[in-house]
Amino acid sequence: MYKSIRIASYFLSATILLGSCGQNSNIKVLPNGLRYAKHTNLQGEKAKPGDYMSLHFQMWGVTSEGKDTLLQDTRKVVKAFYIRPDEPSLGRIGKGLAEMVKGDSVSFYESVDSIYGMMVPPFLKKGSEIRFDMKILDIMDEAKLKEISKKEQEEQLSKEEEVIKQFLADKGITNAKRTSSGLYYTIDKEGKGPQPKKGDEVETHYTGTLIPSEKKFDSSLDRGQPLKFTCGAGQMIAGFDEGVMLMKQGGKATFYLPSKLGYGAQSPSPDIPANSILRFEVELVSVKPASPK
What we know:
Elements: E1 28-29, E2 35-38, E3 52-62, E4 68-73, E5 81-83, H1 91-97, E6 105-111, H2 112-116, E7 129-140, H3 142-170, E8 177-178, E9 184-189, E10 201-211, E11 216-219, H4 220-223, E12 227-230, H5 238-244, E13 252-257, E14 277-288
Antiparallel strand pairs: 1-2, 2-6, 3-4, 3-5, 3-7, 6-7, 8-9, 9-13, 10-11, 10-12, 10-14, 13-14
């Protein structure tokens, strides 16, 4: 339920498959020591400082039995994965990407220890390499990226709104309201206490399910302890935070969140896939006004 905080390291924990890149014998070494095998010989402009790349990659490891195993495939998560090659957290791989052009296919090899540090999964072979098979889809400046992102978000929101509307219709729910952000909600029991505002501390009980499957992914009731947080402080996903501030103490409501108000293209847990539409049945247990400054 808490807002997911992801940084560029997601690049190492999460794009068109290069066919069977395998362990290529045509391996070269960049000046920074990064081993790589390029599978194309294209001409074009490389990324300039501040530019972004859209790409897809697969992340492969070697098991303790010596078998290749697929660890991540970004095609299963997003249409395209966007990064800035000069982002420091990408390390040597960022430098390698900066040498690529649009359309390139390449494999980068890094030691398992440099990727995972002290947290190497026990099923991976010690001293082995992690292989990133990558396809560079496009190179763009920040303005173009913003334009693409805005269009993709609008398309995704439109698609998800249709799912929410159909779900409400199937359930015979006719009193749902929509906020300007895209949050749908119903007030199921009007509270008689104060309505929280930004900075107020609240306690809530909730049950979260996916739409349209109605599969439960979390509930404070199962733990027997309400969730406590400060409204408007960025501690919660946006839709939940906004919805609670529409309630009054003692009231109950149901929120229907398009993915942009939840976890977006991220998958915070196996129970919540990327671009999930979320439903929360919420009870506002208490409201504690913010202390005056």
